Amino acid sequence: MPRVKRIWYPGAMYHITARGNRKENIFHHEYDRMKYLNTLKLVSKKYPFKIHAYCLMSNHTHLLLETTQFPPGKILHLLHLNYAKYFNKKYDHNGHLFQDRYHDKLIMDRYYFMDVFSYIHLNPNRATLTDEESNPLWSSHYYYAHNESDQILSKELFHNYLGNTPYDQWFTAQKLKIEEK
Questions:
Q1: Does the residue 1 lie in any domain?
Q2: Structural domain boundaries enclosing 27
């Protein structure tokens, strides 16, 4: 059965996830996360795009990615190919690092954007990794919470959607929603 064709157009935004093969870890140490983020920055020079949020869990990744002139397939192929080469060499690993193709959900409006943004930043919290939620090698939450910039992050759209609400107040409200469930 053929694969379903992915929807793409310049400016399309996606929630992209990629999981380790057999749900195995794709990050063993902080340096691995740093390497993934640096690889993401290098790929952005060849295939420009915007990252609005990210979370690098031990066995999977989340990216809130906005394309500019290239489809996400080109971006993710180069990113995961280069990271897998690094990982396989460092850990003497053979075979696929990532399970299947990456998954993507097209983001069509500001409400879904905010839901995905919240989901990505609360991922460590959901996994009871609260010490990691503010670690910049795990999540872009750090850069929003500390009002710091990062080469790879594009924070303007989120702040436009957020309006006058301070980030920490918004984030606390999002955490409370999870606890209520």
A1: no
A2: 13-180
